[in-house]
Amino acid sequence: MQVAGKCPPTREALRRSADRGFDAVELHLPLDVVEEGAETLAARVEASPVSAVSVHTPHVLPGEHGPLRVADALAVELDAYLVVHTQYSNLTHVPELEGAGFEAAHGYENPPGASVRHLTNLVLDQGHGLVLDTAHLFMAHPDYLTEFQMLLDRHGGRIDVVHLTDSTATRDGVPFGEGDIEMATLCRLVKGSFDGAVVLEVMPDHQRNALRRFREA
C-alpha cells in the first residue's frame, strides 16, 4: 500500500507535500496549470521530492477532451494512474469520457451519493476500473462500511486507488475526525483489505494530521 497526499503540480505544492511527510501524491490539475502541458508538468514532478501515484482529471465538461487528454498524457509520462472524475459529469457520461481515448491505466471515481448498484452497472460491469471515494460512498449508503468491504472483496482487482476522507451527509472532504464517518474503523478496514494507493483527500493544511491518524488507526 502507498499512502499519498494531494496537490497541484506546482513546485511549492510538491515541496510542501514532502514537508508534510508524504513521498507520493495525487496530482489535481487546475485549468491554468493544464495549459503548461504534460511534458513541462512531468519534468517538474520528476524533479520534485515526491512521486505521483495518480493524476486527477481537471473539472471540465465530459465533452471537453483537450484538458482530459493532457491529464492522460501526464499520467502516461509519470507512469501514474488516471482518476477520471469531474464535478460536471456523472457515471452516465462514461462513454463520452472514454471518447477522449485514454492511454493511461484509469478508473472512474464514484460521485457523491452514487449507489453501489449504479456504479456496478455503469462502471464495473462495463469492464472499467473504479476509483473508490469513501466519503462519496458514505453519502450514498448508511451501511457504507459493509458496502466498502463488499466492493473490495468482489471487485478488488479493478480498484487501484482509494480516496480516503471524512464526510457529513452533505459535505465531503472534511478533516479526519470532523465528520460522521467512523474514521478509525474505516482506516483499519483499508489497511487490512486494500493494497493499492490510498489518497488522503483533505485540504493541504489538514493532510499532516490525516496521515498521523491513518498511521495510528
Describe the protein's architecture and organization:
With 217 residues, the protein is an alpha/beta fold. Helix content is 41%, strand content 20%. The protein has ten helices and ten strands. The protein has helices at residues 11-19, 31-34, 38-46, 65-78, 94-98, 116-122, 134-140, 144-155, 183-193, 207-216, and strands at residues 2-7, 24-28, 51-56, 81-84, 106-109, 129-133, 161-164, 166-167, 172-174, 197-200. The strands form two sheets. It has an eight-stranded parallel beta barrel with strand order 1-2-3-4-5-6-7-10, surrounded by four helices. Strands 8-9 form a two-stranded antiparallel sheet. Strand 1 (2-7), helix 1 and strand 2 form a beta-alpha-beta unit. It starts with a strand and ends with a helix. The model has no long low-confidence stretch (mean pLDDT 97).
| Alpha-carbon Rg, integer | 16 Å
- What is the succession of H and E elements? EHEHHEHEHEHEHHEEEHEH
CATH superfamily: Divalent-metal-dependent TIM barrel enzymes
Mean pLDDT: 97
Pfam family, one: AP_endonuc_2
Organism: Halocalculus aciditolerans
Protein name: Xylose isomerase-like TIM barrel domain-containing protein
Domain Xylose isomerase-like TIM barrel: 102-206
